[in-house]
Design brief:
Layout (H helix, E strand, L loop, with lengths): L2 E7 L7 H9 L5 E6 L4 H8 L4 E5 L5 H8 L6 E5 L1 H4 L2 H4 L5 E5 L4 H11 L11 E5 L1 E4 L24 E4 L2 E2 L17 E2 L2 H13 L4 E4 L8 H13 L6 E6 L6 H7 L7 E8 L3 H6 L6 H11 L4 E8 L6 H12 L5 E6 L7 H4 L7 E2 L7 E3 L5 H18 L5 H10 L4 H12 L11 H4 L2
Parallel strand pairs: 1-2, 1-3, 3-4, 4-5, 8-11, 11-12, 12-13, 13-14, 14-15
Antiparallel strand pairs: 5-6, 6-7, 9-10, 16-17
Helix pairs in contact: 7-8, 8-9, 14-16
């Protein structure tokens, strides 16, 4: 059988890590093909012609393209995996070519499925498998043994231009109602010496950016300290690192270590999502915003900080969201990502969306349209804020101007970014040629 695993990435810089894992842990000789969502359907189909069995790794950014491809692959045996397939199996079996869907971590399950297709084992021995036999059936759940999982970072074949994903653990301690990671229990850790070995390979090969995929990197403070010390000791002066951390759980020891490292070669992604206590409670998070603010002040001169907010969460109306935005913006981190709630199938919010009368778009990325607390026109207003925030603040433009208007003049950040976008979008505004590259929205 000719078999390939396909990763369709949102951008060239993002490697298909899930597909890489299937490839490097496969007992069979399978091909790995990578594309981006900008590649043409015909180009992808031409590349798939010679294969009998095709596996797609599905995510929110590529699921619509994958669905389109499935309509043209009727003579193939299709295997699906990844988050979108794991929790939308019922609709994806409507495509006749889709024969099997692997739920969750797939390194061992994929090998078992290939053994079944080679008539070596019964289908009931394939773990984590949905299959169709008059009705959709599921075999059984099994988490792979992390001691047996291999990584091959040579598959990320352009280390100087791509982000290199690395994992030191799998699973998440938290239960955030909007996030698929909340379903990944329990948290398990890779051997720390293997993690260091992978880090050393990437550092020796001058990887540009190493991003840890751990859902909450600093929950295990001992492991975090060991990895940060290793990074400091092996700093090549070139590679930068990205970690997702819980901002109010940074220990004094971690903060002290960060203050001794090369400045700005570490980036922390800190999910704040909301500062409204009622919203935080409704989305099953725990957050001490005062402690978070204090920790950010202690580390912001040493590292790059990216903060996140989500518009459309329960009990967050326009006014409380404005407050969340202003309080978060006034932390003055390098980046503030203003996102909009997405319906991820399988999450608590998706299962209970009728409780708050949620309306989501029916196609990916399944973005919120309205709920009991915020209507469509109010969400559209927040999108005006997002436009100028992303265009002018997050790229680092006009830093002295923003410092003056927000720190000295103390203008309202939400209202100011909204006004900037509204002004630029006016039909009668004439923008000087030398400013068009900055002021086009």
């Amino acid at each position: 059988m000719n078999i390939c695993i396909v990763g369709i990435n949102s951008k060239y810089i993002h490697p298909a890590f899930g597909a890489h894992q299937i490839k490097c842990n496969s007992k069979e000789d399978i091909d790995l093909l990578e594309f981006t969502i900008k590649d043409s359907k015909d180009k992808i189909l031409d590349s798939l012609n010679k294969y009998d069995i095709i596996a797609f790794s599905t995510y929110i950014w590529n699921i619509e393209m994958v669905k389109d491809l499935l309509n043209s692959l009727t003579n193939k045996t299709i295997i699906l995996g990844g988050p979108e397939a794991s929790y939308q199996f019922d609709t994806l079996f409507n495509y006749p070519c889709v024969k099997y869907i692997i739920k969750g971590e797939g390194e061992e399950s994929f090998n078992e499925l290939i053994d079944f297709l080679n008539e070596k084992i019964d289908i009931q021995r394939v773990s984590n498998l949905y299959y169709f036999d008059e009705v959709v059936k599921f075999t059984y759940t099994k988490l792979p043994d992390l001691k047996s999982i291999k990584h091959n970072y040579a598959l990320t074949n352009d280390l100087k231009n791509k982000i290199c994903y690395l994992e030191s653990s799998r699973g998440c301690y938290f239960n955030c109602s909007y996030c698929l990671a909340s379903l990944e229990k329990p948290v398990r850790f890779f051997d720390i010496e293997e993690v260091k070995s992978n880090l050393k390979y990437l550092l020796d090969n001058n990887a540009k950016i190493i991003k840890f995929l751990d859902r909450s990197f600093n929950v295990d403070q001992k492991s975090m300290l060991e990895i940060l010390r290793f990074i400091k000791e092996n700093d090549n002066g070139y590679t930068t690192f990205q970690f997702e951390v819980v901002g109010d759980m940074l220990s004094d020891e971690v903060i002290s270590l960060i203050q001794t490292m090369r400045k700005k070669f570490i980036r922390f992604e800190i999910g704040i999502q909301s500062t409204n206590p009622k919203t935080i409670e409704a989305i099953l998070r725990r957050q001490n915003f005062d402690k978070l603010k204090s920790n950010i002040e202690r580390i912001k001169d040493y590292i790059v900080i990216h903060t996140d907010l989500i518009c459309g969460l329960p009990h967050e109306d326009k006014e409380t969201f404005k407050k969340s935005f202003n309080e978060t913006f006034l932390l003055f981190t390098e980046e503030l990502q203003l996102g909009f709630l997405k319906e991820l199938k399988g999450t608590h919010i998706s299962k209970n969306k009728d409780l708050y009368n949620y309306v989501f778009s029916e196609t990916s990325p399944y973005e919120v349209i309205s709920n009991n607390f915020i209507n469509k026109s109010e969400i559209d207003e927040v999108k005006l804020v997002e436009k100028s925030l992303d265009k002018f603040y997050n790229p680092g433009y006009f830093q002295r101007t923003f410092s003056y208007i927000f720190k000295d003049l103390k203008l309202n950040p939400y209202d100011t970014f909204k006004a900037i976008t509204e002004y630029i979008l006016k039909k009668d505004v004439i923008i000087p040629e030398e400013l068009k590259m900055y002021l086009s929205i």
